[in-house]
Design a protein that fits this description.
This protein has 662 residues and is of the alpha/beta class. Helices cover 45% and strands 12% of the residues. It has four domains: 77 residues, Signal recognition particle alu RNA binding heterodimer, srp9/1, CATH 3.30.720.210; 179 residues, P-loop containing nucleotide triphosphate hydrolases (Rossmann fold), CATH 3.40.50.300; 68 residues, Orthogonal Bundle (Helicase, Ruva Protein, domain 3); 205 residues, Peptidase M41 (Methane Monooxygenase Hydroxylase, Chain G, domain 1, Up-down Bundle), CATH 1.20.58. The chain is built from 22 helices and 15 strands. The strands form three sheets. A six-stranded mixed β-sheet has the order 1-8-9-10-7-11, sandwiched between helices. A five-stranded mixed β-sheet has the order 2-5-4-3-6, with helices on one face. Strand 9, helix 10 and strand 10 form a beta-alpha-beta unit. Helix 6 packs parallel to helix 8. The N terminus and C terminus are likely disordered.
Length: 662
């Protein structure tokens, strides 16, 4: 490998870094070496200029006072004006006299210069009766001076004031403009972050071991690039992390940089987009230039689908706009990488299907990694990570909590642990007990309990509604076990039935899905069988039933009449994909047939097991909440474990059976 293609690792802290005016930098950084402060420019010339302006103002004010002040005259000239009865009024302090003439008179000492305001000094040896002469001449004698003299300090303050006001005005205007441009441009100064305080490693990541194994190659390349260069290999230029929100994509990217001990630049894609066209592209250029300076490094772009949507077609959001220019700049920058630069781009999205094909081709995002929600073992490991700094009481079983949280992501589990810690702190406990974790799980899954006093008739109807869900869930072969039934209002619901699978499920067959529909219709069927009414409490049940039934018929080929054909797309109008109106009518007919059959089956099962339904209701009205053992005991149904469903259909993720009566 030629020597000029080999990049040095992170430069030492004492190496000079290029400096310049701060620009709009919306990204955040970790692990950068601290940059030396820029050299301070001399400001003595500004101080000298300011002093000169002060002296000019001071001199002008002093000259103005000298010109507009009273005229000094001889005492004999003053006596002459007194005898002429031309004194209008005077002010005397000691022997100093200030006054004003009725009519201007010439000053004999100033070659005929006219004056009207004057000042003079009365000799101490004068023996005239000045007050009597002034009174006879009609002059006024005052106790305050006619002319207020400004002192040197006052002149200095006045001379500074205009200049200070001008400076304050410009500073205010500059800050207002800076604030407006900051809001428009999203300016944010980049600050080096102490790597010892914020860096995370793979020790802080749990539950996604297979993803760690894939991304370890990136870490190894950034640590030992020469090992790969010797055999002609190059690191992937880009790695796309896709998965549901909360699965740990951002944490994984940070851990990759922390494990490799390289600088980490992170930004959300939306932060590059602004109203002014071209700003996003310039930010992208600057970000990649900064990353190259400290290579090897990692650039992480979160929610890249914001700017990476496919150009053209039905999903495009416009023509040659700011979003498209920013995307083009990212494509250009990634093309400009060579294998030896040591800059790796990580990106995260939960919508990989909408990304532009140019982003996903080899040479840009060479590797795509799917980050799934953790399984049972992964949830247990995640709980262990999040409880490191949480004091746990004896008897806390994290494995049991992990088994009760299928489908939860790492963010959900972190929130669960935090809720449990809040409950423990509220109860003035020093440790988090199993009860706190269980109560927190109920709050997260079922919602917070409300203090609502329901009429007895409505409370009884709610009990039958929830008992119908629970009983049908227990009677269906292979259905998820019923974990809890409650008629305590929580959130928007008046009652809740919670069912979760015994083990993690990754695929669902038609029999299981029909059971889900029957269980969801249990509340409505129970109200019809017992009270012969249908209430608004079935709203969420019917939404879930419709969603499952339409997917079974229109997407998963579970109808003999439709056949092995996907009619309903995951999003958008099926007519745009060429589906005819006649075919859509057939789908509607099949959905109605399926739901009607399941509803009839639900009512039949409830009629045949009315005694079990009444027994559950009796216990619910007495206790308000029944856990798994209590509800099975009330229905006299033995609790038996159910085998996991077949694997497959990974795109199908059904929530836990949580039915509400509103």
């Amino acid at each position: 490998m030629p020597p000029e293609t080999t990049k040095a690792s992170t430069p030492p802290a004492n190496e000079p870094r290029p400096s310049g005016p701060p620009s709009a930098r919306p990204w955040r950084t970790e692990g950068l070496p601290p940059a030396p402060p820029p050299p301070q420019k001399s400001r003595w010339w500004r101080v000298g200029l300011g002093l000169l302006v002060y002296l000019v103002f001071f001199s002008l004010l002093t000259v103005q006072d000298w010109i507009e002040g009273p005229e000094p005259i001889r005492y004999t000239e003053f006596k002459k004006q007194v005898d002429a009865k031309n004194i209008g009024e005077i002010f005397a302090r000691g022997d100093t006299i200030q006054g004003e003439l009725r009519k201007p008179a010439p000053d004999p000492d100033k070659q005929g210069r006219m004056y009207q305001k004057f000042t003079t000094e009365r000799p101490t040896f004068a023996e005239d009766d000045l007050l009597k002469e002034l009174t006879e001449g009609g002059a006024g004698v005052r106790a305050t001076p006619l002319v207020q003299q400004r002192g040197v300090l006052f002149n200095l303050l006045i001379s500074i004031a205009p200049f200070a006001l001008l400076i304050a005005f410009y500073v205010w205007m500059f800050r207002k403009q800076q604030g407006a441009m900051g809001g428009l441009m999203g300016g944010r100064s980049r600050k080096p972050v102490d790597p010892e305080t914020v860096r995370v490693t793979f020790a802080d990541v749990a539950g996604i071991d297979e993803v760690e194994a894939e991304i370890n190659e990136i870490v190894d390349f950034l640590r030992e690039p020469e090992k790969y260069r010797r055999v002609g290999a190059r690191a992937p230029k880009g790695v796309l992390l896709s998965g549901a929100p909360g699965t740990g994509k951002t944490l994984l990217a940070r851990a990759t940089a922390g494990e490799a001990k390289v600088p980490f630049f992170s930004a959300s894609a939306s932060e590059f987009i602004e109203m002014i066209v071209g700003v996003g592209a310039s930010r992208v250029r600057e970000l990649f230039a900064e990353a190259r300076k400290v290579a090897p490094s990692i650039i992480f772009i979160d929610e890249i689908d914001t700017i990476g949507r496919a150009r053209g077609g039905a999903r495009a959001m416009g023509g040659h706009d700011e979003r498209e220019q920013t995307l083009n700049q990212i494509l250009t920058e990634m093309d400009g990488f060579s294998g030896s630069e040591g800059v790796v781009v990580l990106a995260a999205t939960n919508r990989p299907d909408v990304l532009d094909p140019a982003l996903l081709r080899p040479g840009r995002f060479d590797r795509q990694i799917m980050v799934h929600a953790p399984d049972h073992r992964g949830r247990y490991e995640i709980l262990k990570v999040h409880t490191r700094k949480v004091p746990l009481a004896e008897g806390v079983d994290l494995d049991k909590i992990a088994a009760s949280t299928p489908g939860m992501t790492g963010a959900d589990l972190a929130n669960l642990v935090n809720e449990a810690a809040l409950l423990a702190a509220r109860g003035a406990q020093g440790e988090v007990a199993q009860r706190d974790l269980t109560n927190a799980l109920e709050k997260v899954q079922l919602g917070a309990a409300r203090n609502v006093v329901m009429p007895e008739a409505e409370r009884r109807r709610t009990a039958y509604h929830e008992a119908g869900h629970a009983l049908l869930g227990m009677l269906q072969p292979g259905a998820d076990p019923v974990r809890k039934v409650s008629i305590i209002p929580r959130g928007r619901a008046l009652g809740v039935t919670l069912s979760t699978p015994e083990r993690d499920r990754y695929g669902y067959d038609a029999r299981y899905l029909r059971g889900r529909i029957i269980g969801a219709l249990g509340g409505m069927a129970a109200e019809r069988e017992v009270f012969d009414v249908v209430t608004t409490g079935a709203e969420s049940d019917l939404e879930q039933v419709t969603r499952i039934a339409r997917s079974m018929i229109g997407r998963w080929g579970m109808s003999e009449r439709i056949g092995a054909w996907s009619v309903l797309p995951s999003e958008g109008d099926p007519r745009m994909a060429g589906v005819s109106e006649a075919q859509l009518e057939v789908v509607d007919e099949e959905v109605r047939r399926l739901v009607d059959e399941c509803y009839g089956e639900a009512r039949r099962l409830l009629r045949e097991n009315r005694d079990k339904l009444d027994a559950i209701v009796e216990q619910l009205l007495a206790r308000e909440t029944l856990d798994e053992a209590e509800v099975y005991a009330a229905a006299s149904i033995p609790r038996s474990s159910t085998p996991p469903g077949p694997k497959g259909l990974p795109e199908m993720t059904l929530p836990a059976a949580r039915e509400v009566g509103e």
